[in-house]
Write a structure and sequence with these properties.
Two copies of one chain form a homodimer. By secondary structure, the first copy, chain A, is mainly alpha-helical. Chain A is built from five helices and two strands; from the N terminus they run E-H-H-H-H-E-H. The structure holds a DNA duplex.
DNA sequence: GGGTCATGTCAGCGATCGTATACAATCCAA
DNA sequence: TTGGATTGTATACGATCGCTGACATGACCC
């Protein structure tokens, strides 16, 4: 029994896609199960960072995935590295979801 | 070492508030750490369902909380109860975040 | 070739997010 | 009690969400 880490929206998306396939569901099936559009499932599986927490948790639940965290003793001693993480990775992922630029065809100086 | 389950936005909010206090941070501190407003932290801690996945994951990471899921063998046999869960609980929680009604002061018949 | 299914993508639209700012509650120490 | 720090709320505004509906692609089978 492996423990899969969920650190980014992409991780969550990958997990959802995985579980969905294991259960032999297509995007439309899952969408109906959790009460969202097929487009939503499609985008979330691709790591959409702005997806709403509630819907994502519903998706995981519907797929039988129980997200959890280890809560140690409770002392402040439990905060290891945490350096505000990979800013680069975060920015790169976010860039993929930037709004379409339809005007400003001019790159400016 | 206990395993805490994250099934709803309220669960996530409670976890965030807990970890934040253990680390002796106020809402403003945490907000700065993850690059959001203090209001955002305040609302998320209270279980805002529409909070964006990316920001929530950043908050958890900043607090040293690593969300994870157990990935069993991979067989479809791993989807136990899951009956679209507590519709009532979900609706009740969602109701708390309904938009303010500023017009329609008339309740209609 | 023709048909079906699952997936990826686009456009437009109303609803909601997250923000800045301001002010009211609480709490706790002195 | 007084004062400061922390938290809870309210408003308005631009940005983004999630939706519908449509169309294109690719895989697969007939």
């Amino acid at each position: 029994m492996t423990q899969l880490l969920l650190r980014t929206p992409a991780d969550v998306g990958a997990l959802i896609r995985d579980r969905r396939r294991v259960l032999k569901l297509d995007q439309a099936d899952l969408a109906r199960m959790i009460g969202v559009s097929r487009l939503w499932v499609n985008q979330v599986e691709k790591g959409k960072p702005g997806a709403s927490l509630g819907l994502v948790l519903r998706a995981l639940d519907a797929l039988g995935a129980r997200p959890m965290v280890d809560v140690g003793a409770g002392d402040a001693s439990s905060v290891p590295p945490v350096v505000t993480a990979d800013i680069d990775a975060i920015m790169a992922a976010a860039r993929k979801w930037e709004p379409k630029r339809r005007d400003l065809p001019d790159g400016g100086t």
